[in-house]
Amino acid sequence: MKKFIKDWLMNFAIIVIVLYVFDFILYGQGGNKVFIFQLLFVTLLIRLLAKLTSKFISLYYPVLEYLLEFAMVNIVVLGSGLLLKWFRLENIWHPILVIAVVYAAAFVLDLTRTNRDIAFINEQIKRRRGFGK
Amino acid sequence: MRLILKQLQDISETEVEIRYAQMDARIHNLIKQVEQSKQYLYGMENGRQHRILVNDIFYAESVDRKTYIYTKLDIFHCELKLYQILMKNVDFVQASKSCVVNINVLENIRTLLNSRMEGTLINGEKITISRTYIPGIRAAFTEKGGDAE
Fold it and tell me: What's the Cα-to-Cα distance from A57 to each of A8, A44, A49, A64, B131, rounded to whole Å?
C-alpha cells in the first residue's frame, strides 16, 4: 500500500511538473487548483488500472506490456480530459505529447529502480553464497 | 546476531535453539525457516506419488492450469495451486504470473536485451522473471536479513 501511494504521488508530481512547463511554454500560464485535484484523481485511476493490468495480464514481450500500458494511459487521460474539458478536439496532440513525455519519464524512473533492485538482489545472493563457503 | 555451531556426536536429530531478547520479524523468520525445513509436499511423477521436502523445491510453475514442481533434477505434477505453494515457505516468491521461485536457489538475475528479465538457478536452469515482481523479490531478500537501503 505504501509503495502504491508513493508511486501514485510520484507519477502525479511528474505530471504536474510536465504540465506546468507545457502550459507555460504554450500559453504562458499555470494551471488552477480544481485542475490539480482532477489530475490527482486521474493519476489514481491510472495507477489502479496499471496495478490491475499488471496483475492479470502478463505478456511474453515486455515491450507489448509497455505499449498496452501506454494505450491504457492515453485512453484514460483523453477520455477524462474530454469529459472534464481539459482540451478541445482540435488540440488533441497537446495531451498526447504531454502523456508521451510523462510516460517516458515514468518509464526511465521505473527502469532505473528495477535495475537498482536487481543489483541489490544480486549483491544479496553473492553475500549469502559467501556465508555458505 | 551471533551464530554458534556445536557438533555433538551423541544426538540423533539436529537441534536448533534460538535465544532472543525480543521477538521481532527476523526471529519470526528464523523460526518459520526451521519449521519449514521439515515440511513436505506431495507430487506425482510417472503415476507415482512422491514426498518432496519443501526446501528442495527450486521453483513451481503453472502451465495450462496445472501446477508443476521443479526440484534440482526432477519435475512433479502437484495438485496445489501456485498461491498455495507460495504460502508453504517464506523463501518462495512470485517470479512471474505463472512461476514461484525459491530465493535460496537463485544464482543471479539479469536483464536481457529485449528488456525481459531472466533468473539463473544454481542448477543452471533459467526462468523468466517479470519486472512487476522484482520489488517483491527484493523485499524477500530484505526481510531475510539483507541491508535495507
Answer: 20, 19, 11, 11, 13
Average pLDDT estimate for B111-132:
86
Residue type, B96: S
Q: Which residues, 6 or more positions from A67, have their beta carbon under 8 angstroms from its beta carbon?
A: none
B147 vs B116: CA distance, rounded Å:
26
Pairwise CB contact (< 8 Å): B107 & A125: yes
Instruction: Annotate B20-71 with DSSP letters as a single string.
Output: -SS--HHHHHHHHHHHHTT-EEEEEETTEEEEEEGGG--EEEEETTEEEEE-
The Cα–Cα gap between B42 and B80 comes to: 9
Collect all residues of chain A within an 8 Å Cβ-Cβ radius of residue B117.
114, 118
Select from A106, A93, A97, A123 the least CA-distant residue to A43.
A106
Question: Comparing C-alpha atoms, which of A130, A119, A118, A125 is closest to residue B146?
Answer: A125
Q: How confident is the model at residue A33 (pLDDT cuts 50, 70, 90)?
A: low
Task: Return phi, psi of residue B107, to 5°.
Answer: -95, -45
The alpha carbon of residue B61 and the mean position of all alpha carbons in its chain are separated, in whole angstroms, by: 13
Residues A109 and A12: their CA atoms lie apart, in Å, by 13
pLDDT band at B138 (very low <50, low <70, confident <90, very high): very high
Residue with cell 542448477: B123
Mean pLDDT of all residues in B34-50: 86
User: Minimal Cα distance from A119: which residue of B?
Assistant: B109
Q: What are the extents of the domains in chain A?
A: 2-132
DSSP code at position B81: -
